[in-house]
Amino acid sequence: MSSEESYKQIEGEWKDFRFRRIQPSDYEAVYEHIAQSFCRDEPTANLLGWSEEFAADVNRIVAVFLPEGLSFLAEHKSTGKIAGVRITFHHKADSDAFEGIPLNTRNCKIMVKMVTDVEEMADVTTKHGINTWAEFLLVSTSQDFRKQGLAGEFYNRSIKFLKAEGFKHALVVVTSPYTQKATSGRGFEQQSRLDYGNLMDFDGKTPVFKKEELTPDHFAMVMLKTL
């Protein structure tokens, strides 16, 4: 578990919001936020299609990583509503982060495959000699609190927190030009890019998406920062 001194790097008030660590008592509210905000609106999730079963699968993944104590939420000070969440986990190169998590929907399995494929393309262990890093699994903001800088502030505070925790690198798979801009502006560097026209199904030869479904903004990209 992280230290109280490290938590001071991210916890506190900012504008109309309060940033704090996610406690076990917050888990159910966090799952509901992810189901209704991230799983409906994140570009890849939106492309794959929302369902309650898909959201439940995403939250099974999140549930594995919350106990690590690296994840945070922002709550609206006047209403107490969750305005956003940042889910982070400790990724080690010699382990499959998603192995053993029971997933029931094809959509979530495809999303995990996308993350795995683009990270294998990046191969940061071979290219940079990195065996461990902090990985940003997702950042999500509620529809009511968007365009107020929350996602960027999560990055700012999380970077300070991870440095205090002794991490040397942070990695994130971004899936839109907006998150690409947010990360590159904070010193993250592109390691790989997977355009969704080249994302293959589990047989390795059938495209997941039809060309008419895609735009140039449909991609996944690994971004890496030295802390």
Automatic annotation (TrEMBL):
Source organism of the structure: Orchesella cincta (Springtail)
Keywords: Transferase
Keyword Transferase: yes
Organism superkingdom: Eukaryota
Keyword Transferase among UniProt keywords: yes
Protein name, per record: Dopamine N-acetyltransferase
Record PANTHER family: AT07410P-RELATED, N-ACETYLTRANSFERASE-RELATED
GO molecular function: N-acetyltransferase activity
